[in-house]
Amino acid sequence: MFFFNRRRSTYSDFSELALDMHSHLVPGVDDGAKDVSDSVSIISGLKELGFQYLITTPHTLQGIHPNTKETLTAGHALLAGHVPAGISIKLSSEYYLDEQFDEQLNAKSVMPMPGNRLLIEFSQISRPLDLEEKIFDLGIKGYQVILAHPERFQFFHRQFDYYKRLKEMGVELQLNALSLTGHYGKNVKSIAEKLVEKDMIDFIGTDIHHLRHLEVLKQVPGTKSFERLIKSGLLKNKHLI
Ligand SMILES: [Fe+2]
After folding, report:
1. DSSP at 237
2. Do 21 and 65 form a contact (C-beta atoms < 8 A)?
3. % helix / strand / coil in the chain, to the nearest 5?
């Protein structure tokens, strides 16, 4: 049935998105899935939400989650034979801009997504002074930068034009689906909605860490912003299949 002035989106799950490219589902390597059974429960939940493809992105974060290609590959291998039919899970990482990242970059041991894309994040407290230099350098090395959850960096909220600057530099922006529900607070929600309204979002990611996030994710397809993103045709999630 069609309603004029309807307030809800026409979507009830994530099947139109098909692929999630930000999650913490490798058992025991970061603050995400604790063990294989935890991981499999979350993956099954994502399948029920309509996802068919996952690129999981455990943290590589010096001193806290000091992962390497070897630790992540070994963790990912534990899932072999346990992943439910109808969904696949590939491996990349969410790289924090620190010295360990520079070392892995120089050793060419980073694990990009299709299109040589690297998902990056940095301090939630202040913008790294050399951010633009680093982005430029990654471009020179042939990588396409995706910035994880730009709406969560509070210091960007008062300088919205900086998001435009990042886009001009060729950075792709990945919105956390949970931001649209108010899960991270109303300021993050309103910046998320503004980024959507201005057609600045390239990817949606769940950034799922645990089963409790699944319940919140169920609210996302019903939001107007989700509907706008899907209908905009601008999302690149399916480019990574
Ligand atoms: Fe994340």
Report:
1. G
2. no
3. 40, 15, 45
As residues whose CB is below 5 A from the ion ligand 1, the structure lists 94, 207
Closest CA to 49 of 19, 14, 75: 14
CATH superfamily of 19-240: Metal-dependent hydrolases (3.20.20.140)
- Reported as a single tens digit per residue, the pLDDT across 62-96 is 999 999 999 999 999 999 999 999 999 999 999 99
pTM greater than 0.90 (yes/no): yes
Residues 211/45, Cβ–Cβ less than 8 Å: yes
Distance from the alpha carbon of residue 10 to the mean position of ligand 1, in angstroms: 28
**57 alpha carbon to ligand 1 midpoint, in Å?**
7
The 8-class DSSP code of residue 216 comes to H
For ligand 1, the distance from its centroid to the CA atom of residue 183, given in whole angstroms, is 14
